[in-house]
Write a structure and sequence with these properties.
By secondary structure, the chain is α+β, with helices and mostly antiparallel strands. The chain has 15 helices and 13 strands.
Length: about 450
Amino acid sequence: MRGLAELAPRRGRSKDGAAEPAAPSGRRARLPRPARGDRFGVRDLLSEASAGIGARPGRLLLTILGTVLGIASVVVTIGLAQTAAGQINKQFDAVAATQAMAKPTTSRSWDGTERSTSALPWDAADRAERLAGVEAAATVSVVDIGDLEVTTVPVNDPSQAPVTPPKVLATSADLLDAVQGRVVTGRYFDAGHDERADRVVVLGARAAERLGVSRVDRQPSVFIGERAYQVIGIVDGVLRRGDLLDAVILPVGTARADFGLVAPQELHLHVAVGSGPVIGDQLPVALDPNNPETFSVQVPPSTSAVRESVQADVNTIFLALGGVALLIGGVGIANVTLLSVMERAGEIGLRRALGATKRDIASQFMLESVVIGLLGGLVGAALGVAAVVTVSAAQDWTPLLDLPVVGAAALAGGVIGLAAGVYPALKAASVEPITALRGGV
């Protein structure tokens, strides 16, 4: 580059060295602007910025680390949130999103007790199964046995320590299909047992363990008071009503005949995915067309509502962590760039003396900050995608991630670098050549 003397245009001379005519009286002569080639060009800007970035590789890695962690956190947050929401929806599809329940509404009387305003019909399960979307339905009722004991022996032993008897429930024949349970031993009673009021019972797995019943091939019996009921099966794996595992289960007809059951208390349904809102509107009318408002129906939320709820909760946590990491990364870039300005004061002064303008100096340091942030964004986005794929593969999930989100996250690193480099660039541009060459900033 030419020196300062060459940068200043000569007065009174044209480009070819000839004398210029004097300016008219009363007017100040306009000096010609120096040629653009005397200043930094785009090639010089890129060259000097790349040299400044690559001068200290160790510091560069530490500088972009905060941005890498922040961008990776954002990508992992969004990717795992979408992936986890999809997997959780599958679980809801298997359990919560396919379960519904109906029961009579209650009102509080003057003495503070709650009483049902209506009663489920005995054929509530049959009425519900006629609705589109209902795959199975069954009634469940708690049987009041008073002071009677539930034992496996007909003789009351006074020396035996008193134990809390298991709960006695009455259900219709299709209960296991409605609550997603399974029989581990024997069988479940059917509609014939219900109609004949046969004295048979099915035990929940924990109730069977308490009563000491582990097999049914020897026709064991359970005594409720002095009445003997043959155990025909043991159930386990109930997903909806966990209290069934601690109960002695009777047919509804047997509970009506032996214990005076007045009406079913709850109706449980297994429904098709997405049919909950429609069933919630139609079921009360099917149970009682004249008074549908006397029944309360609980239906599963829609799949989209579940996904949005889960994804919002996960995003709130991880995006906060990602935001903190991005803030740390931006502060790190600003600090390192400012430190670079102080260390390179002599270089800045020399370039200013050779003709570089404040704009050229500011552009150089802004470009360095943007490149550093963009490098952090690209590396962070790549690590985030790799983390999502790795976690999904380890859990046997299907990874879900929007590619535009990944691209935007990578570009966000450049934006962070741009914001972080504003003050150091202005600081570098304000350095005076003489002061810098003397060793000050």
